[in-house]
Amino acid sequence: MRNILRLCAGLILVFFLGFFLAGGRDVLRAETLNRVTGWATESVLPSAPREADASSKRANADGLARIKRLLFLREAIDERIAEKKIVPTNELPEALRNAIVAVEDARFYSHPGFDIDGIARAALVNLQNGEIEEGASTITQQLAKNLFLSQEQSFARKAEELALAVTLELRYSKEDILALYLGSIYFGSGYYGICDASRGYFGKEPKDLTLPEAAMLAGLPNAPSVYSPYENFLLAKKRQFIVLDAMARNGMISEELAEDAKIAPIYLAH
Q1: Looking at the DSSP assignment, which residues form a beta bridge with residue 186?
Q2: Could you say which of 185, 213, 234 is where a domain stops?
Q3: Coil, strand or helix: which one is 229?
Q4: Which domain holds residue 164?
Q5: What is the average per-residue pLDDT within 191-197?
Q6: 218 sits in which H/E element
Q7: CA-angle at 13, arms to 10 and 14, nearest 5°
Q8: Nearest to 104 by CA among 254, 229, 239, 221
Q9: Angle between helices 194-202 and 211-218 (to 10 degrees)
Q10: pLDDT in tens, 95-107
Q11: Would you say residue 136 lies in a domain?
Q12: What is the DSSP letter of 186?
């Protein structure tokens, strides 16, 4: 019953977000009410008809493109990842999968694409500051953003990200989402996707990564240009420690294993 309710809530959320993104918010504008009802509103300022029409057409076209992407998400994703190497998660080491989940989205396997607790915490911070300063993006939301959206920090962009994330969860399994994420995320130093990152940093295939190597790679997507071991090995090691501690905290490895991994030597490819 809980899964059914969650599914219904997700569908309702997608509908309203899609409505909003397609221009549904324009229904609430004074200009629209004037045209529909004939009411006069003094707050409506005169505008150049051609500019207003052009802007309206662009907004409608963008909204329809977003709705089309939601309805035909698989096709849109296939277009985006055509050049990327996506490795199924059953061909990746457990240490790598656990490391990414532990540090990026500890509740990945239990949430429906968004984390209510994280959203509530971030919303409080953002409301206090009057702008988006803290995110609460899950792995699914990050995948949606990386594939389709800009880095703009706005409420409209976050709404679209949320709609895409819910749709992803409805159409893909958790393992497929994780595979897509690992195959498309940026790991710094020009490496996109886990295959390029594993070969570029350690000269090996992802399936051969050790726990210390997997933890170091898992720490990079947070700030790839900062944590790349080729840019700053000390910061990469500090980030690796954070990942290993997160894995131990979430019961994925023992504290003893985490401490051993922290002092294990790391050999870079060059």
Answers
A1: 192
A2: 185
A3: coil
A4: 1-26+107-185
A5: 96
A6: helix 211-218
A7: 85
A8: 221
A9: 120
A10: 999 999 999 999 9
A11: yes
A12: B
